[in-house]
Records
---
Amino acid sequence: MIRLSHLFVRTLRDDPADAEVPSHRLLIRAGYIRRAAPGGYTWLPLGWRVLRNVERVVREEMDAIGAQEVHFPALLPRDVYETTNRWTEYGDNLFRLKDRKGADYLLGPTHEEMFTLLVKDLYSSYKDLPVSLYQIQTKYRDEARPRAGLLRGREFLMKDSYSFDINDEGLTKSYNDHRDAYERIFSRLGLPYVIVKAMSGAMGGSMSEEFLAPIEVGEDTFVRCSQCDYSANTEAVTTATPPAETNPYPDTTNVDTPSTPTIASLVDFLNTHHKRPDRAWTGEDTLKNVVLSVRQPDGTTEVLVIGVPGNREVDLKRIEAQLSPAEVEPLDEANFAKHPALIRGYIGPQILGERSNTGIRYLVDPSVVPGSAWVTGANIPNTHSLNVVNSRDFTPDGTIEAVEVTAGDPCPLCSSPLEIARGIEIGHVFQLGKKYADKLGLTVLDQNGKQVVVTMGSYGIGVSRAVASIAETFHDELGLKWPRAIAPADVHVVITGKPGDEISVAAEKLCAEFEAAGLEVLVDDRSGVSPGVKFKDAELIGVPTIVVVGKSLAEGNVEVRDRHAGTNQPVALLQAVSHVVELARTGK
Amino acid sequence: MIRLSHLFVRTLRDDPADAEVPSHRLLIRAGYIRRAAPGGYTWLPLGWRVLRNVERVVREEMDAIGAQEVHFPALLPRDVYETTNRWTEYGDNLFRLKDRKGADYLLGPTHEEMFTLLVKDLYSSYKDLPVSLYQIQTKYRDEARPRAGLLRGREFLMKDSYSFDINDEGLTKSYNDHRDAYERIFSRLGLPYVIVKAMSGAMGGSMSEEFLAPIEVGEDTFVRCSQCDYSANTEAVTTATPPAETNPYPDTTNVDTPSTPTIASLVDFLNTHHKRPDRAWTGEDTLKNVVLSVRQPDGTTEVLVIGVPGNREVDLKRIEAQLSPAEVEPLDEANFAKHPALIRGYIGPQILGERSNTGIRYLVDPSVVPGSAWVTGANIPNTHSLNVVNSRDFTPDGTIEAVEVTAGDPCPLCSSPLEIARGIEIGHVFQLGKKYADKLGLTVLDQNGKQVVVTMGSYGIGVSRAVASIAETFHDELGLKWPRAIAPADVHVVITGKPGDEISVAAEKLCAEFEAAGLEVLVDDRSGVSPGVKFKDAELIGVPTIVVVGKSLAEGNVEVRDRHAGTNQPVALLQAVSHVVELARTGK
């Protein structure tokens, strides 16, 4: 039994100054967590209960698919991460440190390398496979901007698992087992989720899906088709590539285009002074060239120009996802000056491409197909070129998904309009393939006595982040509303009487009966605290069932409040235990 | 049910090269842990089970005394540890790092500061106290020489708790509650322990006791009285100070003492050339002066001379414990040269002391009482002085417990001979007092509306170290022998048959019945592994009860082996479940 008279907690009436999102505000106000460091939180007793409930659900479902729990150190030697180049690729996101002898260490952000080496250490035959291993462990990432409380911290609890198989069929099965387990986990946690296609990011590998909780304050944008079941992280959305054009276009002509700093003004100018015979010019006819600086983790930088239709915005996050682990930003003034061929506002692809004179790398959006003609900069101040044709007048070095996906864009599967939504990543399943096994030499003998490289999957769930996501999903202006599976207690008993009076005696007896019936009881037995304050705290703390023992005891009743539905119901004291047990059993 | 056919484990027949102590060797060989980094170990599934069993016992007993579980980050900002000077005092033992913005962090070795600030953050009145909080958390210490596997690692699991009280009576009660809980914990774990008086070390504070597991390979030396119940860490042993001497001694005389490099040769020389009238000279009559360099955590060093009777050895560890957080080492040649007054081999206290001409600090063992006369160096080469009297011919700056405690030394309580033993620290209870609350401003309003400083205790248990200590205590040349409370399973079933044969079918049925009876079952269902190997693995893994299903099945029997007693017993198959349930129930 948890007694509020004794519990280490202080509820706050006011929002903490630094809390931007509801989950953060309410978890602090209700006494679940306290900030201890930038991006680091202390779990108070109530929060710790919720976190351990989530952990238990995760553990049970991982065990159910035959995954086995292990536990690695968080402080890891550099050399292993050097082998896979992640020591460098992680860039500033990695916490690095030296020991007293000057040897390099890192705080593990994920453990692919360590798991790979562990399996290599113990296993040597196809008979040993498949095996799936997992840990529930504190992870570290030096986030540039830790924010939103537990949603994006620098120290957080994760379940990470890794599967090891002899072949692709095995990997597919391990992947699907994890995917199914994740569906069960989030269902049990009561946390709504969407499964979206994802990029592989810094991990390498092939098939990859994210579990997103659809939350307005989430940092991830994803699309879903309004008709079919396609959904993807925006970074991973693929554009259906139109066929190449085969109709010939007239030769390129240059036109004076003074005072056309924007695509809109350019289109206006053309429609006034250089009318098309067939129809009006639109932004879609123009090719916008964006100059970027691409920084590799080892510090080297490269200038990259990306061409997209003038009516679309460039999405740096999508570009970065495809160039990962490199980081991308618009080229700054000083570096622009180093490339005099690039005339700001009038850049055209005629001078771009690795095989051009400038040698500047040039990538285009997939919609810029070979044979298509564009209005674009003439690389001369105040001048644009018409009929600049891809593969005739310029040669891109490749394509890249670069434009911002917007609502109404066609679904790559069925061409119906896409919808845009926001969410937070709560899980990730990922077919790593042989990348790590290759680099670290994890092979086993197959049935024919031949060494084969093992194929791997990696699978993560943000355990502490799940707590915040649930809080973000289930709350109102009064406070939290925990799903029953992870609530810090099954029932929150509010005693409105004073210690020793009839109400308190009856309430204490009821609490003992609840407990005897196997319920976890949180009881507000504080003296000197008004019923009003107790009600407010009960709503803030958010246990799904609140039982008030008060005046209605005179009629032999207690009041049962449903925190989710917001309803009150008188229940006979004698029936209270069976009533609440039934609520807990049915998960209501 | 844990199936060895599936379990992620490989037992090793040979000892790992780097394993010095039995627990380390056997935990690796039996597949409980693997080395992952210097002083960092990965818990494999079997080890993880044992660790979590220990954790569960610790948690239950902490909850039982009303302590409440919280959880802090391990990555902590420097400023808090700066306030208490521990950022500096911890010296090289602290892992320090910088984040991407260059801010200083540390990996928490203990969390006194954080707990103090948390209570300050939430509580403000005497009515809130007492409160005890704890966490079970991964800790970091940059040990100079990580060794002995889990016994001295750099990343390890600890339960640390902290009590907060309004006054000394409260602190005494909290301290005793923890001490009692620790006794219950170690009893439940089946781990023999000794409670010894301890020094406060880098923590500050007053009353302090250690729980030591009496293990030959332990790093701590402790004494216990052969008669009374006195016991103490050698650092904390106090010497009964003899009364000052009042009989006058003759004036100091210098004597030539060529070729007397050792105390023994000096005593011989005196007994030959300068006989005492009353009795022979002994080492006890001489005063040996040891020159040390004392390095403070901030890097400043000081020369310190310590005088002890010539028949005793100096114990640098004891000296260091008393000068903590400073570190101590013998003064090296180069620094000796900077103090020409110190004539090596002939140093006498006549020129020492802060108020002497040299100004060199001089401390003496408590047995060097005021009024006592000594043979000591004359500060002239090849010359000693006789009748050098404390407080007449020299003035120490104080006393220090400096001599190595040896078996037979008198007990400070009852003067009976002390015994010396070795052990490993598995727990520590400690009255911190007001040190941290003072520095960090943790005050509450008392009953009279006055701000009073809170008084604290800190209490630690090495959770991962307990696993190793238990392994160190319970093993033989064949393998581990777990106490039942923390064994990875209740029963280890060895199936000597092949899958599908009569023996296997009966064994699988028995396993299912064991499980239905609430037992955790580890079953060796591997095919293609000989019974001999299975028996060896069962002994190595060390589950307390081993049930062999084999040939004796023909007579309706299984064989029940007691791993601790080393006995075998045929038991009727039909009685096997009730028999093993009874063993588990009675803890045998």
---
Amino acid sequence: MGRWEPDARARLLRAALDLFCEQGYENTSVAQIAERAGLTKSTYFRHFRDKREVLFGGQDELLELVGSGIAGAPESAGPLAAVEAALVAMAVTFTPERWEIGTRRLSVINRTDELRERDALKMAGFRHAMRDSLRQRGVSELDADVAAELGVLALRRGYARWLEDGGDFAEVARRALGEIQVAAAELKGAEQL
Amino acid sequence: MGRWEPDARARLLRAALDLFCEQGYENTSVAQIAERAGLTKSTYFRHFRDKREVLFGGQDELLELVGSGIAGAPESAGPLAAVEAALVAMAVTFTPERWEIGTRRLSVINRTDELRERDALKMAGFRHAMRDSLRQRGVSELDADVAAELGVLALRRGYARWLEDGGDFAEVARRALGEIQVAAAELKGAEQL
């Protein structure tokens, strides 16, 4: 592939988003996506298992970044500091290209039950990856659960803010996690009931 | 329906679980489930939209209980106290019958991608319901997000513990939320990185 053209995955994703927005997710076929991207259906299936997955590419890479980010945090880092390291490690994938299509991608997902389910599972995958990596650092099961839950919230809130304002995802996610940490520590308690 | 027989929904769920465990989810049809339950396919479809939904019945009721639990919490209750009220309100659906089939239900779900996705979306539904109900009480957007996230974690941890040990779900969930609150307040901080 010449450097003058985006790679096949990116072309397929753009073509898919164009078609999903023009005619709806349900009404679009893999053959149409491939055609719009100027590629063949078999090229499509070399990259993505089915129609849905074009919107959810790159998850394996992200899960690896979560794992290596947490494993690579300093030994003295607490659970949330390790989660922060994961978010910072993920930032490398939050490129300007990804930003540009992000809003359209999210609006397609939110309009379609099947895609919202897939997205919910993706988030559950991040939660599991954070929790498992924290457990491997010797974090207690309860603390790992709580830190992973707050980490995924930071990812979700950070992503929404990044789509709005752009900028460096690492910074945005760091700020989101910081706010969440303060809020979690100060939440008015269960004992009040 | 006579009082000597369980209602159609429960019969269909039991039949479905039997078949899913015996021959796998993929290999089971709605017609087989209905037949095993001694009911017709059209009765099945009066109760559940598709094969999957037999495992996820009652979510609307639960979402309503979440909403009314949070809305009905005392005005002075903080966000986590309101979330606790939601968990306590949900307890009415955690019956001995539900307990009896819970472990099998969960193992079928965890074995099948499609069902795990559906389950992830169900949890996201609870999160949204908690967050929206908290917002209606005037809780800030950040606090509502954090409290809902911790509330869903309490639901998940409480449910797992309840399936293991049985007992009163309200008590189990309350304890789970209490632990989570303490852990969240004490998590070692992001500023350490």
